[in-house]
Structure formats: structure tokens, C-alpha cells
Amino acid sequence: MTTDAVRDEERADGEEDVPLGGYAVLAGTFTTAAAVYAGVARRRGIQLPHHVPPWDVALLGTATYKAARLLSRDKVTSFLRAPFTRRKGQALGAEVMDEPRGTGVRRAVGDLVSCPFCVSVWVAGTLVGAYAWTPRATRLVCAGLGAVTLSDWLQYAWTWTQQSTEE
């Protein structure tokens, strides 16, 4: 199927054009940032860890999860998403749902910043880079984000418990 035929089919389904050029810019930006980081780390003699303990992987994963949710769904970070998204509605808890707006790169960034799965790749890249550079400081930041994640789950469990006992 040709690109034009795909676009026509998407329009027929009510979908807007997919900003492939914008996605390419974002992928290029991510790749360039990783390459620059690797080059600077090599020049400065940063030694990559030979082994990452499972506990650190779990800590990095939990922190990535929470930071991605904060960046893509939290009310307080709405100002970061506002140039690229518009408010669609309220989600569970203190989270909001934003949808991308605009075209091209603006739309692609809107897709990125409104999707916790998409943002998590960028967050994980940042945290892994920081872990290689300063593991102790990164563990501390990740522990803080992990504590917030645990707190969120406890808040939801408490709310669920209250609602269950009231019924």
C-alpha cells in the first residue's frame, strides 16, 4: 500500500496524519544525545559498570515508571506539556489525560509527552546514563521516586479499603 493510500485510509477512519517526520526528529534527537553522552563519557574516562545488580535494575525501573507518570500525567507538570497538548479530561487520582495537538514535530512531541510508555524510554535513558556517571547519586534519586511510587500504591490501597468497608 502506498503512503498516500495509507493516509487516505487513516483519514477515512477519522485519524489525523501520523507525524512520521516529527517522530524521525525525536528518534534522531534521542540517538544523538546518546552518542554525545557516550563520547563525553569516554573522553572523561567514565567506566561503565561490568554488572548491574538486580536490585538496581528494579530501582531504576520503579523510578522510570514514576518519573514517566509524573511527566506525562501529573497536574503539576502540565505546564511542560501545554505547548504540545490540550487537556482531555481527568484520570484516576491526581492524574490528568492530555491529548497531542498541532502537526509535525509539535504533534510528535505531544504524542511523546502525553504517553507514559513513550516518555519512559527517555527517562530510562537519562537514569541509566546518570547511573553510569554517578551511581550513588542516581540510586538516591531513584530511591526517592521509588518511595513516591510506594506511597501512591498505599494511597490507592487505602482508598480501596475505605470504599470496600463502606459498601
Write structural notes for this entry.
- The chain is mainly alpha-helical and 167 residues long.
- The chain has one domain (20-158).
- It is built from seven helices and two strands; from the N terminus they run ααααββααα.
- It has helices at residues 3-12, 20-43, 54-73, 78-81, 104-113, 116-133, 135-166; strands at residues 85-90, 96-100.
- Strands 1-2 form a two-stranded antiparallel ribbon.
- α2 (20-43) packs parallel to α6 and α3 (54-73) crosses α7 (135-166).
- The longest helix has 32 residues, at 135-166.
- The chain starts with a helix and ends with a helix.
- The model is unreliable at 10-14 (pLDDT under 50).
Radius of gyration from the alpha-carbon trace, in angstroms: 20 Å
User: Average pLDDT, to the nearest integer?
Assistant: 90
Domain module count: 1
> What's the quaternary structure here?
single chain
Inertia-based shape:
flat
Q: How many DSSP-defined strands?
A: 2
Distance between the termini: 55 Å
Across the major sheet, the strand order is: 1-2
The major pleated sheet works out as: 2 strands, antiparallel
Order of helices and strands: HHHHEEHHH
Question: Which percent range fits the helix content?
Answer: over 70%
